Amino acid sequence: MGTLSYTATMSLDGYVADANGSLDWSVPDAEVFQFHVDRMTAVSTEILGRTTYLLMKYWETEPEDGSWDAAEREFARRWQGIEHVVASSTLTEDDLGSGPARLVPRLGLGELERIVADARGEVEIFGPTTAAEAIRAGLVADFRFFVVPAAVGGGLHALPDDAHLDLRLVEHRIFGNGVVYLHYRPR
C-alpha cells in the first residue's frame, strides 16, 4: 500500500501559476532541481491533471540538440520509470505519451483510494485542481511545498479556498536562491 502526497511549487502569496497561467517565476535552479531528482526515488506513481501532464511530457524525450545536463537526464529517467495517472475528461489515449501512463476521465475519491492502495510507494498528486478533492477529504498524508521568493498577485491557488488543514512541520530546507522547502503532515 502506498501513501498519498501533494507537492506544489508556489509563490509567497500562495499561487502555483500567476493570473496569466505563467510558471516562469518558479523555474528551479540547479540546487532545487537536484533536490527534486533525489526526491523522485520514493515516488512510484504520479497523478496529474491535463495541464500538468502536457507540461511534464517534456521529460519523455530528450531534445535532439542534446541540451539536457546530467541532472535533467536523471530526472527524465526517473520520470519515465514511474506510472502516470492522467486525470482528464478532454484528453484521449492518443494524447498520452510513450511512457507508462493511463487515462482516468474522472478521478473520484474511490479511484484515488484504489490507486494509493495498489501503489508500491509514494503516490504524488501534482496540480492543485487535481489534488483539491483529496485535500478536502483528508486523504493526503504528506504536503510538500517549494515556496519561491516571489509574489505574483493572483492566479491559481496552491490549496483549495475551502481547505481547512492542521499540519505539523516534519522537514524544511532553505536553498541558496531563497526557495524554502516545507514538508508537512496532518496532525
Task: Please explain how this structure is put together.
- This protein is an alpha/beta fold and 187 residues long.
- The protein has a single domain, classed as Dihydrofolate Reductase, subunit A, CATH 3.40.430.10.
- Helices cover 26% and strands 32% of the residues.
- The chain is built from five helices and ten strands, in the order ββαβααββαβαββββ.
- An eight-stranded mixed beta sheet has the order 5-4-3-6-1-7-10-9.
- Helix 1 packs parallel to helix 3.
- The longest helix has 11 residues, at 70-80.
- The radius of gyration is 16 Å and the shape is globular.
- The two termini are 21 Å apart.
- The model has no long low-confidence stretch (mean pLDDT 95).
Helix-strand blueprint:
Elements (H helix, E strand, L loop, with lengths): L2 E9 L3 E4 L11 H10 L3 E7 H7 L13 H11 L2 E5 L13 E4 L4 H10 L3 E5 L1 H10 L4 E7 L6 E3 L9 E8 L5 E7 L1
Parallel strand pairs: 1-6, 1-7, 3-4, 3-6, 4-5
Antiparallel strand pairs: 2-8, 7-10, 9-10
> Under the CATH scheme, which class?
Alpha Beta
The mean pLDDT is: 95
Specify the overall morphology.
globular
| Strand percent estimate | 25-35%
- Identify the CATH homologous superfamily: Dihydrofolate Reductase, subunit A
Alpha-carbon distance between the two ends: 21 Å
**Unreliable residue runs:** none
CATH-derived topology:
Dihydrofolate Reductase, subunit A
Domain unit count: 1
Number of helices, counting only DSSP H or I runs of 4 residues or more:
5
Radius of gyration: 16 Å
Kindly report the oligomeric state of this protein: single chain
- Strand arrangement in the largest pleated sheet: 5-4-3-6-1-7-10-9
List the secondary-structure elements in sequence, H or E.
Answer: EEHEHHEEHEHEEEE
| CATH architectural designation | 3-Layer(aba) Sandwich
Number of strands: 10
Structural class: alpha/beta
Largest sheet at a glance?
Answer: 8 strands, mixed
Helix content: 25-40%
